[in-house]
Write a structure and sequence with these properties.
The protein is of the alpha/beta class and about 325 residues long. About 40% of the residues lie in helices and about 15% in strands. The strands form three sheets. It has a five-stranded parallel beta sheet with strand order 9-8-7-10-11. It has a four-stranded parallel beta sheet with strand order 2-1-5-6, sandwiched between helices. Strands 3-4 form a two-stranded parallel ribbon. α8 links the parallel β7 and β8. α7 packs across α13. It binds N-acetyl-L-norvaline and phosphoric acid mono(formamide)ester (CP). The site of N-acetyl-L-norvaline has 6 residues, from α8.
Length: about 325
């Protein structure tokens, strides 16, 4: 693995899951593997889970982790080539990435979609620039189009809670007042399509995801039909992909409530968090025994630690 950008970088999901399980059983077993190694965690956007779980994962492996809020604590970076830098940006990504690559063995980056220009967002300008100029492995902590550490944690969680070999997993759009990126939904679909599950995606008209990520999943615009017999309900809001970045409507009837959960096969409720209670999901569902959102978030340490352990292994064999 040169970089951890999306599902294609992890190799066999079965092997990755086995490694994750063994890390979960003995989280500090590899505490010497990362001694003398360092990681810079760079945030262009806010975070609670990713920020803390990534540091915990690095600490479990004996690594040094340093966090930088690029958005607020450092210079504003320029990404376009050949530009006359007489505007707001004080530093170009070419120098900034190379400098940070000189300070750390690995860099992990969070840079959300702008939701303004679809072609630009889907070209992944920030992660791509770091891969080009930093000279060290780059880990995706949510880019414009994907959140693979989340999807990997989701897969670990589904693997732990599933009651049958091939569970029915439903990714459901849910209302939200603000325009949110597609990254979590894209990665979830992409990872589930590569895993041993039946994936159904349900959303109102106008909220189709990029077909590249939908892949072979069944798309069902009737939410109740989609929920029938589901083993896992994964709620998430995303803005429109076709009418890029727009909130077409906030249809409150798409909230995940007990009445809808009753249509399922006693499904577990999942969400990547942060979640708006009584907008995306009702209190009764998220507070129920079937809600596994905290277990899911706890597995963010495991997904990051698994990825770091693979990268460390590769580095030590170079
Ligand atoms: C972000 C998103 O939807 O991509 C981060 C989720 C992990 N969520 C919000 O901005 C609320
Ligand atoms: N799920 C997730 O990535 O949460 P944060 O945005 O808090 O990191």
């Amino acid at each position: 693995m040169n970089h951890f950008f999306d599902v294609d970088d992890i190799g066999s999901l079965e092997l990755a899951l086995a490694r994750a399980q063994s890390i979960k059983a003995h989280p500090r077993k590899g505490y010497k593997d990362g001694i003398g190694k360092s990681i810079g965690l760079l945030f262009f956007n806010p975070s609670l889970r990713t920020r803390l779980s990534s540091q915990r994962a690095a600490q479990n492996l004996g690594m040094d982790a340093v966090v930088l809020d690029v958005g607020s604590e450092s210079w504003k970076l320029e990404f376009s080539d050949g530009t006359i830098m007489n505007g707001a940006s004080a530093e170009h990504i070419k120098e900034a990435a190379a400098v940070m690559g000189a300070y750390f063995d690995f860099l992990a980056i969070r840079a959300f979609a702008t939701l303004e220009d679809r072609d630009q967002d889907y070209a992944e300008p920030v992660l791509t620039a770091f891969m080009k100029y930093a000279g060290v492995p780059i880990i995706n902590m949510e880019s414009s189009t994907g959140h693979p550490l989340q999807a990997f944690a989701d897969l670990i969680t589904i693997d732990e809670f599933k009651q049958n070999e091939r569970p029915k997993v439903v990714l459901s759009w849910a209302p939200h007042p603000k325009a949110l990126p597609h990254a979590v939904a894209n990665s979830f679909a992409q990872w589930m399509n590569s895993a041993s599950v039946d994936l159904v995606i349900t959303h109102p008209e106008g909220y189709d995801l990029d077909p590249k990520f939908v892949g072979s999943a069944r798309v069902e615009t009737n939410q109740s039909l989609a929920f029938e017999g589901a083993d896992f309900i994964y709620a998430k809001n995303w803005s429109s992909y076709q009418h890029y970045g727009q909130v077409l409507h906030q249809d409150a009837s798409w909230i995940i409530n007990q009445k809808k959960m009753a249509l399922t096969n006693q499904a577990y409720f999942m969400h990547c968090l942060p979640v708006r209670r009584n907008v995306i999901v009702s209190d009764e569902v998220i507070d129920s025994q079937k809600s596994i959102v905290v277990e899911q978030a706890a597995n963010r340490i495991i997904s990051m630690q698994t990825v770091l352990s693979m990268l460390l292994e590769q580095k030590s064999s170079e």
